[in-house]
Fold:
Amino acid sequence: MSSSTPCADNGYQVRSVAVEIDAPASLVWHVLTDTDNYNAWNPHCVRIDSTLKMGDPVAMTLVSYTTPGRLEHVVEYLCAFEPEKLLSWEMQAAQGWPYQARRDQVLEAAGENRCRYFSTDTFFGDSAVHVMNLTGVWVKRAFDDVAIALKERAEELYRRPASPDLASPAHEQMRDTMLRYAELLSSRDVDGIVALFADGASLEDPVGSQPLVGYASIRQFYEAGIDATGGTMRMQPEGSVRVVGNEAACAMIVTFDTDEGQTRVETMDTMVFDAFGKIQSLRAHVGPLNFHPPGGRA
Structure:
């Protein structure tokens, strides 16, 4: 994951207006990453198709700011994903296409339940000055419109009275998140795992241990687990996901390789979700009786 901050060493950068948003950064981040609903609020980018995994394509449908009524299709690649801080994608130069650029969308804390947002587009390479001259004005206008629309969307969601639809995500979404969690753990995708959690989420694995709170601690836990098992850890659901209210549970089988063979672990994972389908807490119910080392030794 990239931890770099937006910069423009060559000076050819477009920067949007910075907006103060009266809503938590977690909610604004949800709006930015809820790509299925971009057409409900975004005046410039009306569709995104992407896994939002590092290095994967970000296929965008953009409203043209130079030709009214025209839609343009652009593919860039995700280069930064720092929950509630930074979302970035970039266009790399290639043979016959000497244009390199990076889009950064930045969130900064601005007090309790408030944050600040701005975005930049940085043009690199020998063609940067020409790209800036040709596109800078309309890119600035488009990014300003997006910043203002994001503020309006997030504040409207934050002010919206609680309702059954807002208080609890769809059961299908919670089920899919739990299944996605198992897939991401098996593929050693720590960025993807962390992105499933809400800001301030807790992880208690196993139940009875000291809960870990926040992105940094949760990230460290999974990185250590993957390293300790040599990248061989796999997780598979054992039966269906059970969902009630804003909670889900599923029995899981975890396996990993050692010099002596494969170890098998039985765990019952429970998750509590926030209104936007992010994991607020994860607890792994597992004890000594659930560990089965090679050869069946207790």
User: Anything to note?
Assistant: The mean pLDDT is 88. The longest strand covers residues 261-273.
